[in-house]
Amino acid sequence: MLKVNFDLLIATLKEAEGGKTQNELVEKNKRKESLALLQSKNSTAEFEELSKIGELIKAKDELIVSTLGKEFNTLYNTAKDIFEKSNLQKDTCPLCDSSDLIFDGNKSLYDVIINKLKDFEEIKQLNLQIKKQWNVFSGKQRIISIGLYLENNKNINLYTEAERLISSESINKEEYNKLVSYLIETDKKVSEEQNKLFEEVENLKAKLPASISETFEKINNVKQLVFKIKQLVEVTEEGKELKKQVVKIKQWQDYLSNLTQQISSAETKLNQTICVDIESNTRNYFSKIINNNNIVPSLTRAVKSQDLDLELETFFNTDNLNATPLLSESYRNALAISIFLASLMRSKHKAKFVVFDDICSSFDAGNQLSLMNLLYNEISTAFNPDGLQIIILSHDGLLRKYFNSQSSQPESKWRSIELQGLAPHGKVLIINNENEQLKTTIINQLNFGNINIATPLMRQYLEYVSLDIIRKLRIPVPFDMALKEDTRTISECLNAIQAHIKLTKLANICILDANQTLAVQTTIIPSILGNWLSHFETNSIMSLNSSTLLGFMSQIDSFYDCFKYDKDGSKCFYKSLIQK
Q1: Residue 190 near residue 34 (C-beta atoms within 8 A)
Q2: How many CB atoms lie within 10 A of CB 278?
Q3: pLDDT of 294-333, one tens digit each?
Q4: H helices within 87-139, ranges in order?
Q5: Inter-residue contact 469 to 563 (CB < 8 Å)
């Protein structure tokens, strides 16, 4: 039945029966069916929708009358801006400067303007509601279909004009009532047309034999039934397809949900395992940095979060406390560094090096040195084959001394490099504080004729040599010199060395041989103090040539060698002026 061509069947019946009456009956039935589709299924609901839109338009018209139009909206906004930007008194007119303007309800001019602007805002909201209600009006398509069926351009044009007025927010109650009245009249015309067609169809049926009219009617009824069945089949098939899609979507949702849970669970277990693995090292590192065994941290990973819960298993005489409010900034940073180092050392695919920038800027001096010792002895490759190359950037003066001291030791694996300059715009000068590197730099600069670069380094080299001799031979210095950096001048260092040599010579316990003593006391130190040092202090050394300055470098090296002795073909420092 679904494959029957009803149009062909009717045409065949017309041809078999013949006559204009049958044709007219068929046409009238078609028009009657078309009109039935144009009638409202729920005219009451449509009328209520139109009434709500009409009430909104009426409310908007009333507000427009009270606010006096868009020009006043601009005026009120301008006045509001003047009040707020110029700190004008709220009861003073911004146009004529009249003061003490009080309106009904003891309201100032500013309050009246604000209330007016609220009315304009309400108009704006009403326009939005009107557009929204019109866009969801259920009878819009039916109105257009009626106009097309009746071939009534006025009906379509009126609807189009209503669309334009509502979109432009300019429709008023009068124009809207005109539209609604015409729509009601059009519905009446459709109803009247359908009643008229019903009478004409009945009259035509009376003129035809009952078999013919009944056959046409039955064919039309079956045709409508088949049309509905086809629609039902299509909807049913669409429903089946949608159900299949829903099932597939649900399967994907279940799969992704289970996968997410598995990943989350695995990640939680992994994180908990990592926390357990690094907790011991974290405690060890933290204890070595802060040098306090009364504070023992505990690591716990939150189950449904990426956060790491920091707790203190022991805090002096109390257990299981939150770490954040109890630890100072220095201790919190020490704990964070401990966790980072423990995680880094646990990693199987760790990087070959790690760079720290001002890693201990909030630490006190003791904790700074403790951290440096930890990095040097346990984390770096100096004593740990599985460790990392450590690069530390800092502008801390204490760390500078520490690195200079460490790098000067014969067996030290630290290297200290000082960067000077004005980065990123200017040049950066690399100064290696190691003795031989500094010496090589000076000689290279002198060989190239760069006296202005070499001379500051020469003074630094002389200072380094003097302090290194004092440190390695444990030469006593004045109390002020030991405590105050500004007293550690080259002349003070040389005087301290010379005084100690004289003292040990008078006690007949000086380990220096006669040539060394003579060179230091009568040649090198007096020459440095009386000649070269005076040039440094007056800056007249800049006028000397490179050859002379190279001679001065040789004299500094000779001074250095006076405190060394031959051992198995190499030069070694004395332990002190009284002991090898």
Answers
A1: no
A2: 22
A3: 888 888 766 556 667 778 888 888 888 878 778 888 888 8
A4: 109-135
A5: yes
In 3-state terms, what secondary structure has residue 173?
helix
How many CB atoms are closer than 10 A to CB 390?
18
Check residue 319 and report its DSSP letter: E
User: Which residue, 403, 384, 383, 385, is CA-closest to 393?
Assistant: 403
The confidence score (pLDDT) of residue 364 equals 76
pLDDT tens figures, 42-96: 667 777 887 888 888 888 887 777 777 667 777 777 777 777 666 666 667 766 6
213 phi and psi angles, rounded to 5 deg: -65, -40
Query: What digits encode the pLDDT tens for the residues 233-284?
Result: 777 888 888 888 888 988 998 899 899 888 888 877 877 788 888 888 888 9
Separation of alpha carbons 177 and 172, rounded Å:
9
Tokens at 154, concatenated: 């006025």
Q: Are 337 and 284 in contact (CB under 8 A)?
A: no
When comparing pLDDT for 419 and 155, which is higher?
419
Residue 117's CB is within 10 A of a number of other CB atoms, namely 17
Confirm whether pTM is higher than 0.70: no
Under 8 Å between Cβ of 279 and 287: no
Whether residue 66 contacts residue 119, with contact meaning beta carbons closer than 8 Å, is answered with: yes
> Maximum CA pair distance of the chain?
158
Q: How far apart are CA 519 and CA 140, in angstroms?
A: 115
Taking the mean position of all CA atoms in its chain, how far away is CA 119? 41
- What is the C-alpha radius of gyration for the chain, rounded to an integer number of angstroms? 51
Residue linked to tokens 């630290």: 414
The per-type count for the chain, helices as H runs and strands as E runs, is 20, 11
- At residue 418, the 3 state secondary structure works out as strand
The whole-angstrom separation of Cα 239 and Cα 7 is 29
Q: In this structure, are residues 450 and 442 in contact, taking their beta carbons and an 8 Å threshold? A: no
Give the residue among 432, 468, 474, 454 at the shortest CA–CA distance from 561. Answer: 468
Cα–Cα distance for residue pair 196/149, rounded to 1 Å: 16
Tokens standing for residue 320: 């299981």
Q: Indicate the SS3 state at residue 170.
A: coil
Report the distance separating Cα 202 and Cα 168, nearest Å: 49
**Residues 134 and 71: beta-carbon distance below 8 Å:** no
**pLDDT tens-place string over residues 376-420:** 888 888 888 888 889 988 888 778 777 877 776 656 777 878 777
Tell me the three state secondary structure of residue 96.
Answer: coil
**What pLDDT, on the 0 to 100 scale, is given for residue 408?**
64
CA torsion sign, 485 to 486 to 490 to 496?
A: negative
The single-letter DSSP state of residue 579 is B
Q: What is the torsional sign of CA 474, 480, 483, 485?
A: negative
